[in-house]
Amino acid sequence: MNLLYEEGGDIKIATVQSATGSGDTESWQATSLSGKKIKLKAKEVWLRFEKPEAKAVMDEALVLSKDIDLQLLWDCAPEEEFGLIDVSLEYFGAQATIPQQAALAIALQGAPVFFRRKGRGRFQRAPLEQLQAGLAALERKQKELEQQSVWQQALVAGTFPETLKSSAQQLLFSPDKNTSAYKALIAACTETGESPAQLMIRCAAIESPLAYHQGMFLKAHFPNGAAHNPNIGVDQAAYAAAIAELPLAQVQAFSIDDAGTTEIDDALSVTELAGSGHRIGIHIAAPGLAITKDDPLDQVARNRMSTVYFPGDKITMLPDSVIEQFSLDEGAPRPALSIYVDVDADGVVNRDTLQMRAEMVPMTANLRLEDIEHLVSDESLVDEGASYPYRKELAILWRAAKRLHAGRQEKRIANGLRAEQLGMIDPNALARDFHFQIQEADGVQRVDIIPRQRGSILDTIVAEWMIFCNSASGQLLADHGLPGLFRTQKGWGPLRTRMQTTPGPHEGLGLDYYAWCTSPLRRYSDLVNQWQLIALANHGVTAKMVAPFPPRDATLMGIAADFESCYQTYGEFQDRLEKYWCLRWIVQDGDAKNVYVRHLKEGMSRVELVPLHLPIPELASHPRMTRAEVVVDDIDLLQLSAAVRVLEIEAKAEPETKAAEEAEEDASPD
């Protein structure tokens, strides 16, 4: 005997091997068509039959079920609940065959729009209104499937459907996976073997791999676009009131930056003192005078947390109009928060003379590294005949900077770290800065990657005095019990660098206190610290009563955590785009390129001429800094990967330089 039953929503047939019981308690040991041993009870069986043979019945039923008119079946079915035998008599008549009854079972089970399931083998036809709604939904679904098929075919052929172009970014970066458009895209990718990004680039929906990397970042972190709201800016009345009573500093200040810097946050001044020695001024742009906690500009800055830098462009933390108003551009006095300290004729800094005030600072020059860096040397600084601007001031700043550096190294050594070398770094070292210059000609972008060694005299002057400014600011906050965003670092160990709201040492820099404050136009942490410092400059010992953030402020703790996370994410995006342009640099003159690499560790190496790290397993067993010539090809600009083939490994690695061995975190304050 054979039994028709339902399992997992499917109609199946099994052949009885043995039976027990009788009537409603009867049960069977049976074998399904797939060979599975099962046990069935009487209440689970829809139909019993001896002949035809089970497989033949199922084969014929599957064919017949496709021709069953569900609307006619619904019309034939009674209003009340019914079973399989009941409706088969109405639809096929009294002579309904076993395959026909099995076909009806398959049709009923697969038509929930027409029939409600009331139990095993029991149904009731759906009410007319529900049937009509269900049929309309099926029709819509069919049209969606047809549209999906059309889109899929177009995508496979390399044409992006016109109706989807407006949602291309969303489709790639934050898709609704239940939409027909997404299903068509995935089906097309499955058919072609491409990733969604590859297919959309081929279909010209995404311009290039660069657009993909940028779009992915913008969708995640700037979903409403990177442009600032033009209606948000500094309240001019508040600005006028903020600067109205600021004294005019009796200094001639100048900044030192590269040519691409448009947010000039810091400047220096040197004023001769009566008798001997000089007063050094570190002047920091002061947007904190006009931007107040929780105002619209603060909300913009807090949402962004930092300017985002990447090759060829940047996304500023503050609107351009605000930057222009507070940037320390030459030609006029600018509002600034100044820290002054005296140095003697030998360049020794007298920290007891430290003072801070908000003031208008005359900006007399914006020096550019590209113009004078090559002119500045130990010899030229003492040469009265050297003709470059601010030679005397730079000589004084350099003399004191060397003293500041030496003092920090003593503390580094006390912390168990090695002293850092002062001045120019070994030109063979890998720890370099790079300038990415991207130009477009005839619609094709070309990148030039220009290395710049850290450690020149000008570079060191700026670095040491900004480190001093951050250290002095941290000390002022700590001495007066004001919370801030302190940058702390342990000499070694996991999570050694962190942002916290209470003072702590920065062992890597050899400092007792370190609070970022020199880039308030570019970093939210610096703007927050500037608010605290302005309160201190204006109110002294009572600053805790008026400062925007009192001790143990939960909001400030949240800002510290958010800033750390955001700053890391922005840095990873910058690294990602730098890797993209490094790979572009390799392929822009051909499909492959011979370059020299230096092995760092565990098979990871870095190209000498550009900041590109590549895995090269063949070098894993060689000493650090082993030099090898390799061919880089098979570059994938979407995955940011490449194949590397070693041509020649030099017999002996060059001695490891200090700069190559240690890329010290926070070595530069800005």
Q: What topology does this entry show?
A:
Layout lengths: L1 E6 L2 E11 L6 E6 L4 E5 L3 E5 L4 H12 L4 H7 L5 E2 H9 L5 H12 L5 E5 L2 E4 L2 H30 L10 H6 L6 H13 L3 H7 L6 H13 L14 H9 L8 E5 L8 E7 L5 E8 L10 H9 L3 E3 L2 E3 L4 H7 L6 E11 L5 E20 H4 L5 H4 L9 H24 L17 E10 L2 E10 L3 H23 L6 E4 L7 E4 L23 H16 L3 H4 L7 H34 L5 E9 L2 E4 L5 E3 L11 E10 L4 E9 L8 H4 L9
Parallel strand pairs: 9-15
Antiparallel strand pairs: 1-2, 1-5, 2-3, 3-4, 6-8, 7-8, 10-11, 11-14, 12-13, 14-15, 16-17, 18-19, 20-21, 20-23, 21-22, 23-24
Helix pairs in contact: 1-4, 3-4, 5-7, 9-19, 15-16
Summary tags:
670 residues; alpha+beta; five-stranded antiparallel sheet; five-stranded mixed sheet; elongated; disordered C terminus
Write up this protein:
- With 670 residues, the chain is an alpha+beta fold.
- 37% of the residues lie in helices and 24% in strands.
- It is built from 20 helices and 24 strands.
- The strands form seven sheets. Strands 4-3-2-1-5 form a five-stranded antiparallel beta sheet. A five-stranded mixed beta sheet has the order 9-15-14-11-10, with helices on both faces.
- A hairpin with a 5-residue loop joins strand 21 and strand 22.
- Helix 1 (54-65) packs across helix 4 (98-109).
- The protein is elongated and about 125 Å long.
- 35% of the residues are buried.
- The model is unreliable at 656-670 (pLDDT under 50).
